[in-house]
Amino acid sequence: MSLIAQQEITVRSARPQDEKGVISLWHDCNLTTSYNDPSKDFQFALNKSNSDILVALQRDTICGTVMCGHDGHRGWLYYVASSPSLRGSGIGKMMVNAGEEWLRKCGIAKVQLMIRQSNEEVMNFYQHIGYEHTPRIIMAKWL
């Protein structure tokens, strides 16, 4: 991303009125699934002591997001998104860095994320910015 473009982008916590634009970006980036309601996810994470949604703005348009949260021990990043038309410009990395910084300020020393196994493009992105595959078995139960 050019220095001029970087200067045009600001990152801040999402506000309730950002919900429509954030969810639209999540849909554009294929981050939504049939079993997660993005509106409920947005409302659940917004501006709590252990979670937040950060947005990147180019002028007044949402062009990036990251949902960050922690359990007091480990941090997690979710819904990392950058506008498809701006891919490769550094917004994804900017959002990951912003989420990591948010977690650092909360005193969290380790950050994790989950990637669908079929999403090789995203795996390559995270490896490129320093994340490594950590073999684990994740078990889940719907409540």
UniProtKB/TrEMBL annotation:
InterPro entries: Acyl_CoA_acyltransferase (IPR016181), GNAT_dom (IPR000182). CDD domains: NAT_SF. Pfam families: Acetyltransf_1 (PF00583). It comes from the Eukaryota. SUPFAM superfamilies: Acyl-CoA N-acyltransferases (Nat). This is N-acetyltransferase GCN5. The lineage of its organism: Eukaryota, Fungi, Dikarya, Basidiomycota, Ustilaginomycotina. Keywords: Acyltransferase, Transferase. Residues 9-143 form the N-acetyltransferase domain. One of its GO terms (molecular function) is acyltransferase activity, transferring groups other than amino-acyl groups. PANTHER family: ABC SUPERFAMILY TRANSPORT PROTEIN, N-ACETYLTRANSFERASE. NCBIfam families: PRK03624.1.
